Automatic annotation (TrEMBL):
Its main location: membrane. One of its GO terms (cellular component) is membrane. Residues 227-372 form the O-antigen ligase-related domain. The chain crosses the membrane at residues 29-49, 69-87, 93-114, 126-142, 148-171, 207-237, 268-290, 359-380, 392-411, 423-440. The keyword Ion transport does not apply. It comes from the Bacteria. Keywords: Ligase, Membrane, Transmembrane, Transmembrane helix. GO terms for molecular function: ligase activity. It is a multi-pass membrane protein. InterPro entries: O-antigen_ligase-rel_domated (IPR007016), WaaL-like (IPR051533). It comes from Bradyrhizobium nanningense. This is Ligase. It is found in: Membrane.
Length: 450
């Protein structure tokens, strides 16, 4: 989106067909190509190159992994094209990304890779992370107007939802967990759509609910409600308890933050519950007092025994607190590591089930301390600045809501800096969107042709 003119004010109800026709009239070939790259990027991360994996096949991991070369090529190609498009029209926006803090984070990641326990693995996965994150950061700049951005977002959401529902109806064995699944047969009946697991489908559907609400707020009274309702129904059938609870809770938290005038009050609203949530989860295995408090609660804050995994991950942090074990290189082969008696199963975990703890394990405490100001603290300040300057209120609220959802979802699952993870992509997109809205204004419509 170009950054110079007034915010969108056309909130009239229009049919989807009319919106598409209006959008196409405003676009020339170059602008249409930018939108195509934006939609392709969203579909690549949401649908992936391997939709509907057969979880009954013992070799499913090998089959998917064998196509990684195509994934690397696709992400690198789209990222290169996006850079070429944006560099020519949005150089001032790109320059704002070059900050000492951002450079320190990238520099630390490179140092961490050099000192990684599996240097080749870390470097390979870092390349994919760079391509994917670059696309997420550039995506708010690709569509030429806010209306075209909305259309790109809505089109990608509808394609994904159509695929997921068609999968449930036409090929349920590939889109619903079954008792024949090799890894987790106990999830039988939970919908997963085109994704490989319900725990990926459920947070994505939560984000699509927010997208539907946003599109409704800016005048799309057909596409917006359709996306929100379809995503909400799918979320219920995934059986994803964490995402289902967070969906409405985070939207309420974002709405409260939106109407709160002062930044320090916004910080209290956003961060105090997040700190409490982390104390009641990971903190409960660090402090006996906190552990005793959590046992008195009417719910299980360890989310079905994840305390063993957290203890195992904390022990790994203690082994290498500064440099960490290497970006994305720790959890591949942990079965040989020592665990407490009775907690041996923790070595079969794929991650630490806490994004902040996982960063401490992989890139060390300095890496975690660099991620926090960039992705936890700065976005809220950017939202305050965008709100102060009255820049695209509805869009800023969407980015705020997705960002907040990511922060809280990260207290129970791992996604921060995770390559090819749709939650990371949408989270990075939201953080970048807030960064740009704090500094530039959105164009509502394309300039009239001479």
């Amino acid at each position: 989106m170009d950054r110079s003119a007034a915010d969108m004010t056309d909130l009239e109800a229009r049919s989807l067909g009319q919106m598409l026709r209006d959008g196409l009239k405003e676009l020339n070939a170059a602008q249409a190509a930018r939108c195509l790259v934006a939609v392709a990027s969203l579909l690549l991360v949401l649908v992936t190159l391997d939709p509907f994996p057969d979880l009954r096949n013992p070799d499913v991991t090998t089959v998917v992994g064998g196509r990684m070369a195509l994934a690397y090529i696709s992400w690198a190609f789209l990222a290169a094209v996006a850079v070429l498009f944006v560099a020519g029209t949005d150089a001032p926006a790109l320059k704002t990304l070059v900050t000492p803090l951002h450079l320190c984070l990238v520099g630390w990641l490179l140092i961490n890779i050099v000192l990684s326990e599996s240097r080749g693995v870390s470097m390979q996965r870092f390349v994919l992370l760079v391509s994917m994150t670059s696309l997420a950061v550039l995506l708010p700049l690709l569509p030429p107007t806010q209306r075209s951005f909305n259309l790109c977002l809505g089109a990608a959401a509808l394609v994904l939802l159509a695929l997921c529902y068609l999968g449930v109806v036409l090929a349920p064995q590939y889109s619903i967990h079954t008792a024949l699944d090799i890894a987790e047969p106990q999830l039988a009946g939970d919908w997963r759509g085109s994704f490989g697991h319900k725990n990926v489908a459920s947070p994505v559907m939560t984000i699509l609910v927010y997208v539907g609400i946003y599109l409704s707020a800016v005048g799309s009274f057909v596409m917006g409600p359709a996306i929100a309702v379809l995503a909400g129904l799918f979320l219920i059938f995934t059986g994803g308890k964490t995402s289902s609870v967070l969906c409405l809770a985070i939207y309420a938290l974002a709405s409260l933050t939106y109407v709160t005038p002062h930044l320090w009050l916004k910080r209290i609203i956003c961060f105090v519950p997040l700190i409490v949530m982390n104390l009641l989860t990971v903190g409960s295995v660090l402090s006996p007092a906190l552990g005793a408090m959590t046992r008195l609660l009417p719910l299980d804050p360890t989310f079905t025994g994840r305390s063993d995994i957290w203890e195992f991950a904390l022990a790994a942090v203690a082994e290498k607190p500064i440099i960490g074990h290497g970006y994305a290189a720790f959890w591949d082969d942990v079965t040989a590591r020592q665990t407490a008696q009775g907690a041996e199963w923790a070595t079969s975990a794929a991650h630490s089930h806490n994004s902040y703890l996982d960063l401490a394990v992989t890139i060390g405490l300095p890496g975690l301390l660099l991620v926090i100001p960039v992705f936890v603290l700065a976005p809220l300040g950017n939202f305050q600045s965008a709100q102060t300057h009255n820049r695209s209120g509805a869009l800023a609220k969407l980015f705020l809501t997705v960002w907040l959802f990511g922060l809280y979802y990260g207290a129970t699952e791992t996604f921060l800096l995770e390559r090819q993870n749709p939650i990371w992509f949408m989270f990075a997109l939201a953080a970048a969107g807030l960064h740009f809205l704090a500094r530039f204004q959105c164009v509502a419509q394309a300039e009239p042709k001479p």
